[in-house]
Design goal:
- The protein has two helices and five strands, in the order βαββαββ.
- With 75 residues, the chain is α+β, with helices and mostly antiparallel strands.
- It has one domain: Alpha-Beta Plaits.
- Strands 1-4-5 form a three-stranded antiparallel β-sheet. A two-stranded antiparallel ribbon has the order 2-3.
- The two termini are 18 Å apart.
């Protein structure tokens, strides 16, 4: 099952990943990172297809996409 991981220390809460996710499975969390930004999170693991659009849109390269074999997919 594909999934994404968001690096809290790199996310600045720009919401581009949320805007461009075709399945709308990413949202803003209620966690603040060390820089004071609310960070994005995957909330519907079943709905993620691993398309990688979120990772390609992230200006801070804070998102990694993983597929079933647990290998990172290049953005």
């Amino acid at each position: 099952m594909p999934f994404i991981k968001v690096r809290d220390d790199l996310c600045k809460g720009c919401k581009l990943c949320i805007t461009f996710c075709p399945k709308q499975v990413i949202r803003m969390s209620d966690r603040l990172n060390p820089k004071g930004y609310y960070v994005a999170e995957l909330f519907d693991k079943e709905g993620c297809t691993g398309c990688g659009i979120c990772a390609r849109m992230c200006p801070d390269v804070a998102i990694s996409v993983y597929r079933e074999d647990k290998k990172e997919v290049p953005a």
